[in-house]
Amino acid sequence: MDSLSSSFLQKHALHHSLPPPPPLGILQLKISSVKSDEQYTKIPHLTKIFIPAQQKTTQTIRRQTRKTDFLTIFFNSLEDFICKFMDPPLRPSIDPNHVLSGNFAPVNELPPTACPVVSGSLPPSLNGAYIRNGSNPQFFPRSPYHLFDGDGMLHSTTISDGKARFCSRFVKTYKYNLEREIGSPVIPNFFSAFNGLPASLARCAVTIGRVIATQYDPRRGIGVANTSLALIGGKLFALCESDLPYRIKLTPGGDIITLGRHESFGKPFLTMTAHPKIDADTGEAFAFRHSIFPPFLTYFRINAEGIKQPEIPISSLNKATLIHDFAVTKNYAVFPDTKVLMEPREILKGRPPFRVDPEKVPRMGIIPRYAADEREMWWIEVPGCNIMHAANAWEEDGGDTIVMVAPNILAVEHALERMDLMRASLERIEINVKTKSVRRRAVATGNLDFAVINPAYVGKKNRYVYAALGSPLPKTGGVVKIDLSLSTTGSGDCTVASHVYPPGCYGGEPFFVAKEPDNPAAEEDDGYLVTYLHNENIEESKFIVMDAKSPTLEIVAAVKLPRRVPYGFHGIFVPECDIKTL
């Protein structure tokens, strides 16, 4: 969500040749294979592969010698001075001692570890891996820190023949590797670093100094890859909208390897959404990026072979809006233009670069899915509708109506500062393509977000949505099942099933896994919901499996994990057959 940083550095970075950090080799070339675990995995596209020096295998983690040269000591001393003497008192939303308390506290990496099934049994259709991404700083912050700022860590539960193995690994981004080498944070946290005018200007100066001194090169990426995962063109990626995706590999033994930054999806400084939409029928991925400089929005498509198609700049978006997600149908792409803006000039006022414009009227932008340019795009005002996540969208009435289902953030002013006060209402939004009008109504009660569907129905009419119950977000206290076939009858709450976790137990986003993904006759809800559940009373985490057809979303299997799993963001299930070809 911090694409501001990438765009800002694109505009102002010094253009000179910077050597890679000494302990890291960097290869940028067309690679035909990479050797890992004595096997070869094909990589046909341009990916930057970071290889730790003297590393025999990509699984081996060696303690790297931290740089103690004069420049490192000098810049770190300046950072310490800013924190101690220039930062004003920290608000709770950026105080690391508050943000990283309880089960939000970071954890270390964990190699693949066998886990006991403590209730039920793991069904054969779950042979594969459930992986969830989240924010996990490798160093406890000495400066302001927001929940969205941490390094990406992937928590994976690999299942085979009823047995489970758990693994946690950092996404080895350029930022992660650089800061691990230096031994402390280097790249500023753009959700939190700008805290008061003197401290903000000082941090900008230190950052520019590090670039001039060749301590880091922003062209090689500044993102944390901490938000989500996606399978695109047969490849697995960890994503965060402040950077390009990082390609990930899963080993047969359940380990997680970062192969590198996938530069085929963009040039240096460019970014990509953390929420691409994958059409299960065509294999295409639809994506976008947003920026603080015109064009503020760019739409593009990636074909089934993983080749990015020509971009479509959207110049009709006249402000730098924080667009986190969108939706696609058979013929359209729909973009929410919310009240949340990205304005770097706010830094000069001593304020964060993200703000809510109370005077702005939210809009929806509609563009043909396969548009060659933006000439056919149009916008419609949708007062009071601020969409951060979209569950799905499809067309009705012969294509005259676009139906979008999404959580609407009711108190958007709390979206970044006070997430505990934020509420989301799951809505059915109908856009009449002919009359350019909108009709909306809530389909459920409760504070619902992290809404998911059967992935086979992306862009097609679906009946069921599964959403997490905020307690408060991003902690979730349960899961509800919504029957959208009831949403056209004016019945109000369309909840048909729910599972509330016991007191003191909290989960995250559920993910739907079909029992028979290759069976076209299978019912839409014939499958399982998987997620991580943490018991704060005994500090124990589990991987749980719920029956998606059950009226109580019954837990049919639970795996006790070897250590707690911090609360995080979005996940994915990768079938065993796909793991073998990644």
UniProtKB/TrEMBL annotation:
Its EC number is 1.14.99.42. One of its GO terms (cellular component) is chloroplast stroma. It comes from Handroanthus impetiginosus. Signal peptide: none annotated. Pfam families: RPE65. This is Beta, beta-carotene 15,15'-dioxygenase. Fe cation binds at H275, H324, H389, H570. InterPro entries: Carotenoid_Oase. It is an enzyme of class 1 (oxidoreductase). The keyword Oxidoreductase applies. GO terms for biological process: carotene catabolic process. Belongs to the carotenoid oxygenase family.
